[in-house]
Amino acid sequence: MTYYLVKRLAIGLLTIWGVVTAVFVVIRFAPGDQATVALGPDATVEQVEALRHSLGLDRPLLVQYFSYLGDVAALDFGESYRYGRPAMQAVLERFPATVTLTLTATVIALIAGLLLGVLAGQRPGSLLDRAVSTFTLGLQAVPPFWVGIMFILVFALQFRMLPSAGGGSPAHLVLPAVTLSIPFTALVARISRSGIAEAMGEAYVQTARSKGLTERSVLSGHVLKNSLIPVVTVVGLQLGNLLGGAVVIETVFAWPGLGSLLVSAVGNRDFAVVQAATVLIALCVIVLNLTADIVNAKLDPRIRLEAPR
Amino acid sequence: MTQADLLGADPVPDVEAPTRRRKRPLAAVPYVIIGVYLLAAIIGPLLIDYDPVRTEVTERLLPPGSQTSTGTAWLGTDAVGRDMLAQIVYGARTSFIIGIAVVGVCGTVGVALGALAGYLRGLSDAVVSRLIDILMAFPGILLAIIIAGILGRGMHVVIIALSVGGWVGFARLSRSITMSTRERDWVDAARIMGVSKPATLARHIVPFLAGSVIALATIELASAILAEAALSFLGLGLPPDVVSWGQSIANGREYLETAWWITVFPGIALTILVISIGLAGDRLTRRYTRKRD
Q1: Is residue A309 in a domain?
Q2: What's the number of CA atoms in the CB half-sphere (13 Å) around residue A228?
Q3: Which of B:254-283 have CB within 8 Å of A?
Q4: What is the number of domains present in chain A?
Q5: Fewer CB within 10 Å, N side or C side of chain B?
Q6: Which has the minimum average pLDDT: B50-59, B137-146, B172-181, B185-194?
Q7: Is A308 inside a domain boundary?
Q8: Residues of B with CB below 8 A from A187's CB?
């Protein structure tokens, strides 16, 4: 367990270093000078030079890189030129909204996905199974950002049941959370379906049935527990993609979270915010993956988080 | 339909083989649809004249089926009077060019790195594996948004942005197949006969990757097309004069209430293509997955 945790933490640190370096490199490759962009077209050469100096852009690249790494280690990303305060502060302010959105989407995906999985997996090969499987395939392939707009068209503009954009009330949460959950609902449904279908043929299910248990308690007591393990594994691995998806969906619904902040910061060349948001998201993904692994080990005693061999 | 399916799926039981031979007319549908899209992407632009920067103010926001100066706008026109059908046909071309380029780059890089890591083991495996770990831990679309958003505009920027994280799946798949194939007898035999390492890798190992890699490439094509649409929807990556479905969908958002067709039709085009490629990829995956240790 200790070996495993140390290894995962090392990989986590490596990941953050990789992401931080990649963003640093990309920003240096960006067309246009940061100081020129920040000051606008009317700035004088002296002003630009002064800002370049205060941002440290006139130092050698390697010196910039290491001082930047030091700042990141201290979670200091500098001032956001657009918001006029520390970038990490601006990012952390948006963070709770993103957590709310992704958590709600995860819960929806788990409930709807398991429901679909049970419907389909109970009788593999049946008409219901094929119908549900086709439906989940469609869910998986449909572009979420477009479905989000269709939801706005139908539920916000046509029937005026729900607000189309913004945040602040539970009603604002419904459309973005459902949209974000779509690909994950499909994923959970597919995995739980195959797990349940497989378990249905196992000897212990036959034993449970021959003991005279009802189909319902066979399902809940014997089948579901065993088929949940792969669901937890895959959902844990996919949580990072859920955060990635949230970035796009937040923009569709103008949800005041980290993702819409990041997209606008990329557009505004507010690099301090881009860097802070990226590191925060990478941290989240690492913590989530680790948690999923530990939960998995708790669910399945056969999985031991130990050294290989 | 994810790479996890390819890596973890069970082998196809032999019992299924005879049923597959039975005629299933519906089985060809996804391939036919992909063919129609490809045809539209290749010859459509030769038949339909479309200028992405031309505007026709008198013909803006016309509903589907309206008459315009150049004929009938079967799918309507957008906010500056451009024909939606033409946009969809030209958008198909953009989607295929970017999708195929991304899969080509990712496939080449991923298979090369994965096969080398799996065959040579040792340091090169450690380096490639850590790179995979790092990229797996960070959402690919986010990386693409940051790269495309900061590097400016152009088709090559989008291709680079989507490839940076996209090769990982190919590398993981090739690495795991190579690692099991290199233990087989014929590889030992080749080594004993004095075949050089590069030749062994190229002639006795890499051919065994083909099936699975093709299956994964199909799946990755679908996700590359989706990711490109998402990027263009966010207004990142592609320059404004390149027609793209994502961009058309974004353009129509302001006019949802009055001109739904601008957003709805490109989305349907995108969805049908991605579902068809996904179905084809699923079938290829079932055909080529085998159990690996």
Answers
A1: no
A2: 17
A3: 256-257, 260, 263-264, 267, 270-271, 274-275, 278-279, 282
A4: 2
A5: C
A6: B50-59
A7: no
A8: 2
User: Do B175 and B118 contact (CB within 8 A), yes or no?
Assistant: yes
A11 touches chain B (CB under 8 A): yes
Q: What is the CATH number of the domain that holds A154?
A: 1.10.3720.10
Residue A243's closest chain B neighbor by CA? B139
A45 and A175 assigned to the same domain: no
pLDDT in tens, B101-120: 999 999 999 999 999 999 98
Does residue A204 share a domain with residue A78?
A: no
Q: Which of A43, A63, A87 is the last residue of a domain?
A: A87
Is A203 contained in some domain?
A: yes
How far is residue A120's CA from residue A248's CA, in Å, rounded to a whole number?
30
Query: For the purposes of burial, counting CB atoms within 10 Å of the CB of B112, is it exposed (0-12), middle (13-18) or buried (19 or more)?
Result: middle
Q: Any chain B CB within 8 A of the CB of A159?
A: no
Q: Which residues pair with B68 in a beta bridge?
A: B71
A190 and A127 co-located in one domain: yes
Lookup: tokens for A246: 């949230």
If asked whether residues A143 and A11 sit together in one domain, one would say no
Question: Do A64 and A102 fall into the same domain?
Answer: no
Q: Is residue A56 part of a domain?
A: yes
Domain boundaries, position A211? 93-299
User: Any chain A CB within 8 A of the CB of B151?
Assistant: yes
Q: Do A142 and B271 touch (CB under 8 A)?
A: yes
**B233:A248 CB<8 A:** yes
**Angle CA B66–B67–B71, to nearest 5:** 125
Same domain? For A23 and A144 the reply is no
Predicted local confidence at residue B213, as pLDDT: 92
Write down the mean pLDDT value for chain B: 83
Examine the pLDDT at A227 and tell me if it is beyond 60: yes
Distance of alpha carbon B244 from alpha carbon B92, whole angstroms: 8
Return the residue of A nearest to B161 by Cα: A26
Of A87, A119, A145, the last residue of a domain is A87
Whether A270 has a pLDDT exceeding 50, the answer reads yes
Counting residues of chain A whose pLDDT is more than 70, the rounded percentage is 96
Kindly state whether A139 is in contact with chain B, defined as any CB-CB distance less than 8 angstroms.
Answer: no
- A137 contacts chain B (CB < 8 A): yes
A59 and A206 housed in the same domain? no
Question: Distances from the Cα of B192 to the Cαs of B188, B200, B205, B206, in angstroms?
Answer: 6, 11, 16, 19
For an interface test with B, give the residue of A146, A194, A290 to mutate (most B CBs within 10 A): A146
pLDDT higher than 90, residue B162: yes
Chain A residues touching B270 at Cβ < 8 A: 143, 146
Q: Verify whether the Cβ–Cβ distance B146 to A152 is below 8 Å.
A: no
Mark whether A159 and A62 lie in a shared domain.
no
